[in-house]
């Protein structure tokens, strides 16, 4: 039944957003909030195009002018405060504290834009510059692609997503001359290439070159391109004879000798280049040839490790510190996302000296069960160690820690399951290196997906089918039982309608709004009337009930009800709300 209303009630605005506003996701938050506000036709309350009417107006009563309250202003305030309430409910705590004193929706919106819009533009420009200037250098192909994908994700978060063709262009621009053959092949293709396909071709080419050069292609490039004017002694292409293990080589690549170096090449004639392994910290071989490179339980000698720290000039480990109030690092590259720090606070050490804070950011710690988040990390260039605050780590990740003489555990507060295990080295509890430093080994040795993840990947079938697919195809899976697992997406998809919002509207006179509903059929009835239709007045809650034999009699009952109340109250029904007989 059609309905009309002389004074439409204030509409409920949208549903709760999935991404609350922080300092790093203004574009994503705006993309969620604006459709809801536009859908409720309330955009004018945030952009200022719907100004507030005057609080009082002049009216003429019996020929005399008088001042009275403006009903339009009360309605405007109700709508504005509803928009204001909706905006505040979508803000995180750090943003909410900045705009809590604002009184109108337009003031809140203006404050948020002034605070975050320029920051989002700056982040977009900075990330685009990083995409343009990033070079592969000594990184493996997996690490290089991971870094470029991370920058592309940052661009998407800033509201400037890159398509595959543009990202592939940035990736190819950062490769050195050794990859010219595969770059030429990719550019000569008539159709565009996806990022994943480009990675597959470049990764296969890198593996082939590594096999042909004895596994030292990346490291040799890193040594020969370490800086301007560097020695060419690390380059395998040299004149002369190579008398190392594996045979002779004249005027070409040296094959067979450990590390792939020419023992008699120019610049190192008769002298083996001095290199240090970054895994076991011993001299004479590279990390790519170390026997312990895939041994996660290997612990290097403490004296060698300390010497290596001095040799490389920096300690890259994270140390668990129960006395630190904040996460601290001297290496800006450890921060996945960071902003400049404009405060005046300093880090105070035990001797009372102060160290300046340059940036503040975030990082992640990957574990087999779930990801741990290191929030509000302080970048202090003068710090000698990278410290993880125990208090902040357990508070931000709903976890707790157990310290033992030779190791420590990070456990989940709810399940008490072990999230991460680390060892004690030299009296210090060190975070496992594989958890916080991405590498090709970490990418290839991916964690086993859970049954719930397989359920999502396979298109949300029943868990019995998921178990059968995993069993028949021998797929990796963490946990074999699915008891107690509930998929939120499946539950929402099976719901026939979303919950209603609580309405605070109220009619001001009888018959302004009538609620109608049809019930039936009844299994047993008197007089063979198996249905009834009810009409409830929103103002008085008075109810009229009409019994019916057939559901098709609803309109006839409504006409009788309309005539009855029209003669009784000398008023007309303004609006009728029903579920359309459902």
Explain what you see.
- Strands 4-9-8-5 form a four-stranded mixed sheet. A four-stranded antiparallel sheet has the order 11-12-13-14, with helices on one face.
- Helix 3 (71-89) runs parallel beside helix 5, helix 5 (105-133) runs antiparallel to helix 6 (141-157) and helix 15 (451-457) packs across helix 16.
- It has 18 helices and 18 strands.
- It has helices spanning 26-39, 44-47, 71-89, 93-99, 105-133, 141-157, 164-173, 180-187, 195-212, 217-224, 302-312, 390-397, 433-436, 440-444, 451-457, 463-473, 488-494, 554-569; strands at residues 56-61, 64-69, 318-321, 328-329, 337-340, 346-348, 354-356, 359-366, 371-379, 386-389, 399-403, 407-412, 418-425, 428-430, 514-519, 531-537, 543-548, 576-577.
- The radius of gyration is 35 Å and the shape is elongated.
- Among the domains are: 26-123, no CATH class; 315-345 and 353-444, Cathepsin D, subunit A, domain 1 (Beta Barrel), CATH 2.40.70; 451-494, no CATH class; 514-577.
- It has 582 residues and is of the alpha+beta class.
Query: What overall form do the CA principal axes indicate?
Result: elongated
Class from helix and strand fractions: alpha+beta
Tally of helical runs = 18
State mean pLDDT (0 to 100 scale).
77
Query: What is the distance, rounded to the nearest whole angstrom, between the alpha carbons of the first and last residues?
Result: 12 Å
Would you identify the regions where 5 or more consecutive residues have pLDDT less than 50?
1-10, 216-272, 438-446
Order of adjacent strands in the largest pleated sheet: 4-9-8-5
CATH class label of the domain at 315-345 and 353-444: Mainly Beta
CATH topology of the domain at 315-345 and 353-444: Cathepsin D, subunit A, domain 1
What gyration radius follows from the Cα positions, in whole Å?
A: 35 Å
Please outline the major beta sheet: 4 strands, mixed
The strand count comes to 18
Strand content bin = 15-25%
Query: Level of helix content?
Result: 25-40%
Q: What would CATH call the architecture of the domain at 315-345 and 353-444? A: Beta Barrel
């Amino acid at each position: 039944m059609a309905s009309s209303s002389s004074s439409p009630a204030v509409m409920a605005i949208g549903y709760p957003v999935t991404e609350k506003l922080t300092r790093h996701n203004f574009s994503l938050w705006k993309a969620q909030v604006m459709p809801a506000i536009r859908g409720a036709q309330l955009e004018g309350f945030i952009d200022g195009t719907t100004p507030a009417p005057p609080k009082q107006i002049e009216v003429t009563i019996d020929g005399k002018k008088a001042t009275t309250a403006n009903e339009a202003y009360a309605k405007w305030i109700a709508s504005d405060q509803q928009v204001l309430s909706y905006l505040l409910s979508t803000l995180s705590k750090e943003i909410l504290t900045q705009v809590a004193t604002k009184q109108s929706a337009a003031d809140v919106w203006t404050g948020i834009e002034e605070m975050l819009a320029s920051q989002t533009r700056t982040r977009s420009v900075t990330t685009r510059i990083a995409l343009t200037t990033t070079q592969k250098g000594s990184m493996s192909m997996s690490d290089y692609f991971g870094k470029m994908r991370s920058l592309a994700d940052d661009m998407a978060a800033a509201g400037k997503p890159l398509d595959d063709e543009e990202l592939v262009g940035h990736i190819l621009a950062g490769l050195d001359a050794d990859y010219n053959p595969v770059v030429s092949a990719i550019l000569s293709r008539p159709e565009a290439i996806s990022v994943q396909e480009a990675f597959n071709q470049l990764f296969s080419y890198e593996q082939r070159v590594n096999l042909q050069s004895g596994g030292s292609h990346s490291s040799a490039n890193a040594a020969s391109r370490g800086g301007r004017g560097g020695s060419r002694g690390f380059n395998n292409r040299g004149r002369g004879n190579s008398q190392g293990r594996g045979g002779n080589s004249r005027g070409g690549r040296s094959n067979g000798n450990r590390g792939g170096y020419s023992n008699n090449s120019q610049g190192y004639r008769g002298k083996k280049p001095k290199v240090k392994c970054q895994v076991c910290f011993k001299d004479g071989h590279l990390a790519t040839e170390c026997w312990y490179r895939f041994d996660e339980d290997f612990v290097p000698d403490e004296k060698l490790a300390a010497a290596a720290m001095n040799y490389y000039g920096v300690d890259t480990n994270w140390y668990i510190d129960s006395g630190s109030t904040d996460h601290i690092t001297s290496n800006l590259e450890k921060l996945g996302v960071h902003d400049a720090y404009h405060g005046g606070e300093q880090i105070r050490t035990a001797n009372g000296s102060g160290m300046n804070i340059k940036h503040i950011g975030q990082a992640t710690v990957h574990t087999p069960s779930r990801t741990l988040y290191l929030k509000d990390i302080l970048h202090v260039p003068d710090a000698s160690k990278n410290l993880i605050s125990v208090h902040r780590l357990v508070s931000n990740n709903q976890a707790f820690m157990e310290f033992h003489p030779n190791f420590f555990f990070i456990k989940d507060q709810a399940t008490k399951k072990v999230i991460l295990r680390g060892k004690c080295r030299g009296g210090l509890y060190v975070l496992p290196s594989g958890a916080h430093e991405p590498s090709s080994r970490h990418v290839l040795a991916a964690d086993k997906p859970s049954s719930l993840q397989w359920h999502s990947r396979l298109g949300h079938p029943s868990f019995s089918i998921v178990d059968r697919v995993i069993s028949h195809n021998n797929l990796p899976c963490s946990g074999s039982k699915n008891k107690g697992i509930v998929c939120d997406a499946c539950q929402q998809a099976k719901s026939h309608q979303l919950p209603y919002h609580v309405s605070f509207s109220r009619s001001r006179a009888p018959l302004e709004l009538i609620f109608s509903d049809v019930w039936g059929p009844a299994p047993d009835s008197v007089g063979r009337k198996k249905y009834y239709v009810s009409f409830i007045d929103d103002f008085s809650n008075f109810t009229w009930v009409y019994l019916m034999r057939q559901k098709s009699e609803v309109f006839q009952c409504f006409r009788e009800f309309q005539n009855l109340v029209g003669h009784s109250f000398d008023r007309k029904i303004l609006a009728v709300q029903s579920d359309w007989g459902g």
